[in-house]
Amino acid sequence: MATARLAINRVDAAVAAGFLLVTMGSVAKAWGQGMKFVPPDVVTAGDIAYPPNTTTTGMVSLVVAVDESGRAAQVQVLQDVPPLTASAQAGVGQWAFQAAHANGKSVMARLPVHVVFNPYNPGGTAVASGGPTVPAPVPSNQLNFMPPQVRMASYAFYPANTQAQGTVVLSVSVDQSGHASKMRVVHGVAGLNEAAMEALKQWGFQPAMRNGATAAGRLCVAFVFQRNLS
After folding, report:
1. Which pLDDT band holds residue 212 (cuts at 50, 70, 90)?
2. How is domain 2-225 classified at the architecture level of CATH?
3. Kindly report the CA angle at 183 between 178 and 186, in degrees rounded to 5?
4. Global pTM?
């Protein structure tokens, strides 16, 4: 019976993957006709748990395939940082998204989500390990559109004299020049929002690409602030 269930699960996964490719492929044909594209976005988000009994830091990078209804149909791990990845996936899996639009019609597209598990460094203390590792390039949407890429990343400085902890989730619009033109706090923590946004201002991005030309795009960055666990 267990073997039968495993076989069914594999078939279901193959069918889902095939549906994703067919859906994206059909939209790609229409894109050649000059469709206006609005990338997917995060609507609501919540805290991501810092795994207990670890002081590991780093950036877990995920690529969320947001379907036409705004559901996270697939979550691909772009950069794995054990033991942080499972916590990032579980947290992001509870978020709500807004579907991408092409000429006003909802379409499936990918949204990069970078989750930074920030070190405890109160008062601007230097981070001995440097910044988080930059992930591999985000795959193309197979819609003649490649989302923005992270070229340089840095940790946030934990504000002095605060007991705050939790997750700050930012929706980031990246313009055609690769600049973070707009940041929107989707989920905030009093005393930590500014620290997250100041850190993000130091990041470097590569703009999105559409049909071989630079384009505006969007990604999401979450900073998970922990207290000193040592």
Report:
1. confident
2. 2-Layer Sandwich (3.30)
3. 135
4. 0.83
Residue-level pLDDT at 142: 57
Query: Residue 225 pairs with which residues in a beta bridge?
Result: 118, 166
Can you spell out the DSSP letters for 129-153?
A: T-SPPPPPPPPP-SSSEE--EEEE-
According to the per-residue pLDDT averaged within each range, which of 149-153, 161-165, 208-212 is highest? 149-153
Which tens digits make up the pLDDT trace of 159-188? Answer: 888 889 999 999 999 999 999 999 999 999
CA atoms within 13 A on the CB side of 93: 11
d(CA 86, CA 81): 9
**CA–CA gap between residue 148 and residue 172 (Å, rounded):** 10
Cα dist from 209 to 135, 163, 174, 201, 204, whole Å: 18, 41, 11, 21, 16
Spatial contact of 70 and 43, defined as CB atoms under 8 Å apart = yes
Q: What angle do CA 32, 147, 36 make, to 5 degrees?
A: 40
Q: Is 123 helix (H, G, I), strand (E, B) or coil?
A: coil
Joined together, the tokens standing for residue 56 give 């590991």
